[in-house]
Design brief:
- It is built from eleven helices and 13 strands.
- It is α+β, with helices and mostly antiparallel strands and 362 residues long.
- It has four domains: 107 residues, no CATH class; 34 residues, no CATH class; 80 residues, 2-Layer Sandwich (Nucleotidyltransferase, domain 5); 64 residues, no CATH class.
């Protein structure tokens, strides 16, 4: 189908509206679409540019060159721009910059390899998902970046404008515990950090509070330097103790009280009732806490008796271990060859733990 001159102009204008909806003074010269990418050739339609140093307007063109910034993908294809950038001569002789390159507002920046809208898109993904997860998500969109690039774009964002808090929380944080400490200030109502101070001196807190006369309440712990800084920097504000330190101090006081009166609690505890033997189980005449008829106790007693019979017959411990297949367990063989009464391992361990409990102070 043949296109007239007016239809070509309408098509170009339509492409400019679709490709650069919020960018003015940019003309699309050609569009090349294939299975992998969309190549767009464009240029600026402004006659001149402003010098970034002195702010003078210049129309004297020194030279031009091509830039190829990446743009937001479209339809699963990557978008590459081919921009004709002009370099202008600064008309002010005293200006230190003799020439400068034009920057398309909303599209390019100095030394930028991506358009502003692609840069803002990657930064928004980085704010939501951080480095690794953000890099994996943008690959689905057709943009290949590393996690370090996503984090750099997030770090380059300007700090948000935080309104002056009405209720501020003051506490310390450690960059190296026991040596280097700083001060963190939090908006208690919004529960968001407001600022970080490099130390925990009263003078730093005083200077910070003096710049914000709208603070009405200072929530702090019982540190003396925070008390001095809050009193000097915000005399109009009420000082209250924060909830976490109240509960923490209460729990420590209750723990100390229980520890001091532990002896009284032990005296008031009732004596344990004497356990009556269950019917059908005979008591061990040697006084073992494991009754006769228990499979573990009977097995231990049988091995104990076998070891003593073999020792009485004149066999060595090594020969007994090979015969009873307990060679790797020399400690078990030594226990069974002991002349005393047999005790299962669990009973011996519980007896040791009981002696340790009785040896505790208080």
């Amino acid at each position: 189908m043949w296109l007239t001159v007016w239809s070509v102009k309408e098509l170009v204008l339509r492409l400019e509206e679709l490709l650069f909806p919020s960018i003015a003074d940019v003309a699309v010269l050609s569009v090349d679409v294939n299975d992998e990418a969309v190549h767009i050739e464009a240029r600026s339609t402004v006659a001149g540019a402003v010098c970034p140093d002195c702010g003078s307007w210049s129309r004297r063109i020194h030279s031009s060159y091509l830039r190829f910034p990446a743009d937001v993908p479209s339809g699963g294809r990557r978008v590459a721009l081919c921009l004709r950038i002009r370099r202008f001569l600064c008309p002010v002789i005293s200006c230190g910059r003799r020439t400068f390159a034009e920057q398309l507002s909303g599209l390019t920046r100095r030394h930028g390899r991506r358009t502003e809208r692609l840069r803002s898109t990657l930064a928004a993904v980085g704010l939501a998902l951080a480095g690794r997860a953000g890099a994996r998500l943008v690959r689905v969109f057709g943009v290949s970046v590393s996690r370090s690039t996503v984090l750099r774009l997030v770090e380059a964002l300007p700090d948000p404008q935080v309104p002056a808090p009405r209720v501020v929380g003051v506490d310390e944080y450690a960059t190296r515990k026991g040596r280097n400490y700083g001060t963190i200030l939090v908006d208690v109502e919004s529960r968001r950090p407001v600022d970080l101070l490099p130390d925990r001196e009263a003078s730093s807190l005083t200077a910070w509070l003096a710049k914000r006369p709208g603070i009405e309440v200072v929530c702090r712990d019982r540190a003396p330097f925070f008390a001095e800084g809050a009193t000097a920097g915000a005399p109009q504000a009420a000082q209250v103790a924060d909830r976490w330190h109240l509960w923490h101090n209460l729990s420590e006081a209750a723990e100390r009280c229980v520890a001091d009166h532990r002896g009284c609690l032990r005296v008031l505890s009732p004596e344990p009732a004497q356990q009556t033997p269950e019917p059908g189980k005979a008591q061990d005449p040697n006084g073992s806490p494991w009754p006769t008829g228990h499979r573990f106790a009977d097995r231990t007693r049988a091995k104990h008796a076998t070891v003593h019979e073999l020792l009485a017959a004149g066999l060595s411990r090594r020969a007994i271990g090979r015969q009873l297949h307990i060679i790797p367990h020399r400690e078990a063989l030594r226990r069974r060859s002991h002349p005393g009464r047999p005790l299962p391992r669990a009973v011996a361990r519980s007896a040791v733990q009981a002696r340790r409990v009785q040896a505790l102070p208080g």
